[in-house]
Amino acid sequence: MPIDYSQKIPNNVQLADDRTLQRALEQWQPNFIQWWDDVGPDESAKLDVYLRTATSVDPQGWAHFDYVKMRDYRWGIFLNPAEADRKIHFGDHLGEAAWQDVPGEHRANLRRIIVTQGDTEPASVEQQRHLGLTAPSLYDLRNLFQVNVEEGRHLWAMVYLLQKYFGRDGREEAGALLERTSGDENNPRILGAFNEKTPDWLAFFMFTYFTDRDGKFQLAALSESAFDPLARTTKFMLTEEAHHMFVGESGVSRVLQRTAQVMNELKTDDPEKVRAAGAIDLPTLQRYLNFHYSVTIDLFGADQSSNAATFYSSGLKGRFEEGKRSDDHLLKGQTYKVLEVQNGQLVEKDVPMLNALNEVLRDDFIKDSVAGVGRWNKVLEKAGLPQRLVVPHKAFNRRIGALAGIRMSPEGRIASEDEWKAHEAEWLPTAADRAFVASLMGRVVEPGKFAGWIAPPAVGINRQPIDFEYVRFG
Amino acid sequence: METAVAADAVLIKQHLIDPEICIRCNTCEATCPVGAITHDDRNYVVRADVCNLCMACISPCPTGSIDNWRTMPKVRAYPIEEQLLWDELPPELSADQLAAEGVAPEVVAAAAAEPVLAVKPEAANGEAPFNSAAYGATVPPWSAAHAYTNLFGPKTPTTATVVGNVNCTETGFHNQTHHIVLDFGAIPFPVLEGQSIGVIPPGVDALGRPHVARQYSVASPRNGERPGYNNVSLTVKRVTEDHQGRNVRGVASNYLCDLKVGDPVQVIGPFGQSFLMPNHPKSHIVMICTGTGSAPMRAMTEWRRRLRKSGKFEGGKLMLFFGARTQQELPYFGPLQSLPKDFIDINLAFSRTPGQPRKYVQDLIHERAVDLAPLLADPNAHFYVCGLKAMEEGVLLALRDTAAGSGLDWEQVAAALKREGRLHLETY
Q1: Active-site residue B384, yes or no?
Q2: Which of A83, A264, B341, B398 is most buried per CB count within 10 Å?
Q3: pLDDT in tens, A35-57
Q4: Separation of alpha carbons A162 and A174, rounded Å
């Protein structure tokens, strides 16, 4: 299929002049569309969706709103504008010129980093593919689809890097990104959290709040990379990632608002009464939070990792806001505290900072997450309710690293196996919780109307009114 | 044209971020071209004295929290130290509270009547509001020349020298518009018709802070006000009152209008990469402007005139729709009259000619609908709108009527105009 490059693929990478890349994309693009048709948003082909499309990287160009059919979305390739004479600002190559091409000795590691990041993008589209059928409003349906097309664009961004800089290997990896499938037993997505189901909208909001925030921190760390095209690509992706976290943060916030309203109207904090009134009770919300938080912090990897040290020292991946930190940016001989269990007790242990960089990034993520949970609690506070949501202990329900498999209460007490079994249903969502939430899910498609378990948003998208027809059914 | 608010106005619309809706994603801070936005662990905030209302942060904000405004006496603008502590936005000050700050009630009423952004009330029939700004292209025509932008920023301005400054409206008349020529000497400052530059007035504002730059469209073509010289011209209206008729003295406009030949001026830019003219043979240009919005139109017209004179360009219609309050206030009225009729089709509207009905550019568009409709559908025709914000919606609605009147589907036409970089809006 021939491609009109300037129209079809908005880009600032001189695509029209790069025949090799054109040929690679021409092969890949039909497979991408096929993938979108096969496992992208369910029953969405005929919908006209009020979407934001990036058409250039300047403020006027990257937030262009219009009705589009998602299949015709203009998935573009954008790099943040180049910084003249950019220097590597951390690791062993500190002070040297940033790389415009991939150094041979870092090729395998860079490819692995890009493939791992790239794999998460189509994975989340697959995880969320059925949600459109139960959207609580047109506004939310539009937000879901916006997240979906932007995850698609992020896939394009990673595929661009693979095809442009990694030759034949890169083209093969780009193809494989469309072959793995979330939750597939034989050919699953690379990371565990991206093989979990996103079965309902509460899970979706929690996912976009927590798991897309992992995306933010990974992208932010990569945007510091010595490999300049990767740094510039991920920097631009961060602006879109912000929308995904907005969907999560405001989504949960609106659920809380509705729950608080029902609790006040009924003057009750009895979860059963809240459920009977068609809202999601606070303990269920807390359990969902516990689950998504703990699954997401596993994504940062083992707390001690020689790969993390190598990635940093060789300049492939920095820390969150590396450029704003005022240490030596080498980290040699420095230490960082990580948790481990000794003799049934949780203890802090000093380990070399370089090996603990996964933990450093995880702790930055935790700080950012906690701040948002604080804003959720403001909703409860404003409604005059004494209850609060809390993030569980870092060691709760972990599957990766030194804390994997430890039985631990959300408050951070080591628990016996019996105690865990006795309380698991209070700490993590149960099948009954999920069935209850699923029972609330029904599609609302009348402009301005919202399902009974969620409050309307404070403002519309792009200054449109809340009852704007964000999605038109063909 | 002067796009910043008059700096010595009593009231400002202070730009604020709603801490209840903001998710602290940092997009606004990363986008702000003048560094007006900052944050701590708690809130993202806007420095009122640095923000130049350029709106670059508005559409990238994922939440809409960025789009909040409070009418404040300038000297009482909320400092960032206070904003950082907020859990929610403060309410608008009441008329009484403003009066207590020494602001006259009629000033408050006038300010309230003028929103910073043209947010239209929802249409009563439940349809989406007509949002004229959404129709503007963000890409230039395909045959536009490459535009250089941001060669000189606020921290690294360059210096130009005034080589000319004349009043180009009728002398002795109350409202003055000056034609000012700036020369860059040996400093490269390439500009295209439709681009703008920023001028930084010297000195400090009432609170002792340096003035921010004001943006002006260049009125001269790419090869100089004087062909072959490294100079540009600006069309500057001396601001003596604001849009509501209150007495204010525009800092930048009065500074510029008072300049003498030989004076140095601090300049930044160039700015703009989509409001650019087509260069391919037989491309048509429709220009719709009011007042000093004529600057880019003069630049484009003059470039086409020079090309034609040198025999390098033939064909391609120029249509001009130009509005002003009176003929005396119309900048470049004299020179405009001497352009050949077969070169440019001129349509003038005066809204305050004594004894005549008020006439606006959109009335002219309706009158010329028969000639304009084919151009809306012609991929070689490009539309440019420049002037006061208030004209934008009227002009777009008139173009919509023009399309509908000849059986064209406006939304399709508008989509093509936008996609092909054929409709450009620059209003302030």
Answers
A1: no
A2: B398
A3: 999 999 999 999 999 999 988 88
A4: 7
